[in-house]
Amino acid sequence: MTAKLSADDLTLIRGERCLFEGLGFALNSGELLLLEGRNGCGKTSLMRAIAGMLSLETGQVLWNDVPVLKQRQTFHGELVWLAHRTGLKGDLNMVENLHFEESLRPQSGRDREAVYARLGIERLKRLPLRSLSAGQQRRVALARMLLADVPLWLLDEPFTNLDREGRKLVMELAEEHLAAGGLCVMAAHQDVDINGPVTKIQMQ
Amino acid sequence: MSDSGPQIPGIFSGLWATARRDLLLAWKRPGDVLNPLFFFAMVCTLFPLAIGPSPEQLEFIGPGVLWVAALLSTLLSLNSLFLGDFEDGSLDQLLVSPQPLPVLALGKTLAHWLTSGLPLVLVSPILAVTYRMPASVVPVMMLTLLLGTISLSLLGSIGAALTVGLHRGTALLSLLILPLAMPVLLLGANTVSLAAGNDIYTTGVWALGAYAIASLSLAPYATAAALRISNE
Amino acid sequence: MWKFFHRLASPPHFYRLAAVFAPWFALPALVLIAYGVYAGLFLAPMDYQQGDAFRIIYVHVPSAYLSIMAYMIMAISGGIGLIWRMKLAHAVAAAAAPLGAAFTFLALVTGSIWGRPMWGTWWEWGDPRLTSELILLFLYFGYMALRGAIDDTAKADKASAVLALVGVVNVVIVHYSVEWWSSLHQGQTLLKEGGPAMDPGMLYPLLAMILGFTFLFGSLLLRRVRTEVLFRERRTRWVREMILSPEGS
Q1: Which of B6, B140, B194, C11 could share a disulfide with B199, CB 3.0–4.6 Å?
Q2: ipTM of this predicted complex?
Q3: Domains in chain A: how many in total?
Q4: Can you tell me the distance from the alpha carbon of B170 to that of B153, in angstroms, rounded to the nearest whole number?
Q5: What is the pLDDT of residues B148-177, one digit of tens each?
């Protein structure tokens, strides 16, 4: 299974600011696209535009050479979105949160317990997420990502709230995902050390 | 496309999952369900205090008061319909999910109705009795409230989706929704009054039913469009 | 044909075209309204029931009609803006809202003044048209409030377009439900549909006023859209060049 994410001539204007203009890229299976730049330079906006949440001034994002907006559901069935706000409910516990995701998205059928153990959250299953630390909540969000069976990972600042060990874990997971033929778009303002073909976009 | 990946769960799975999650959240925070109910009861208490306890008068204004109170109380609970999802990023997850967004919006609205509209319908007979509503009229009132609150939840979900993430959202939401909701109020309250006056009231019930069906089939699309716009 | 629309939708082109067309709306408006006012006040015969009070229809009816029409324009251009992503259409919707609200308000005020000698009160809830008109005014308020609350223009455009489309469905429902409600309570209406045919001496000034008001609305709308376009495009090159160029305008 090979997949391709590409974009051509992307321009985004928010309010009166032009965040990027004429931006393009092409990403194939097994490749990482790294968006770099300071805070507020439009990394998140570009990520959201790729995910189809922002409407662009010009240009379009293509998934397997078909515009994303023409096959929104297919495209969304092949990606996971991990952002600063995790999208998990503080009042629900880990199992309840992950169960919700299962009903929406194709699942990889990986052994859940093994995933929990790898992320170090196997003992937090029955606690409401509110009572966990920010880093632990982020690990639950990572579990959601691993349990989904999708080729494209969109990770916006995936290292937020994680300690050194956690950051290393995210990089390892991304490497494995790429090695298995996945694609990954990552926005980060820290140094990222991932083996594999990396395309970088430096944003102003 | 050509590569047949794993199957995306069906739309009923998405509908049920969103409704179930919101019901679960309501279960863990019962205050969110109970507060609008208390509000409903309190608005109904205001009128006898303001107008006086004369039985004939109360009997006369009863249907209208109950309906206005139901409308206001629904409005009160609508503000939080998408707010929590917006704040914790769940809304982003819904927007990038492979499920059709109108279905997910409908799931959330269904949960809203089950936790705000339905309890109102169930509590209303108690308040109706205090307004000396005849026993024969109470089922009619419950039926109109049942159909009416469905429409109100659906209409309200559009307003809630349009105002999610805005400052001063609550006041704005009322301003958007109340004029849209006026036909529902008008049909509902007058149908009950007709029933109380032993008149033919079926026209109103049919009209409310038609309104509910129309909003059921149209509102989720508007809500979905509004959610996409608000979350840009 | 498509190309023509495309050109029309380009802001600088529209801006120049609107300046050319504006007098063609303003002039007929002036003539028709002047005739309508004179004929309505002095030439039209007195109503055998309402006396001279009926003459307020020469303002009331055109305003009421425009209040609905402006809402339709708002919703349709909002829809066009949403579907074809035409920015000009959103500017039209934004410009039409306050105008529509103003005509709605005018219709309410004239209706209320008219009702005073008829009903002996300034406001009669039983009149279905006035009540519908009042709800319409609230719909306009909601629309403008939503626009005002969203800072980002593009977002405000899209959100308010959704609201206008939902509202336009509702306007119809409001109309019929209020009619039904008023029939329950023996409501009385000022203007009867299908009543005795109007005397031509009364009718012609009314038609002139309706047409004149439509032209007036068109001319005001063009002006407002022009201003709106200028404001929205204030950062673009063509606006700067135009302002710096010697002819100005």
Answers
A1: B194
A2: 0.91
A3: 2
A4: 15
A5: 999 999 999 999 999 998 877 788 999 999
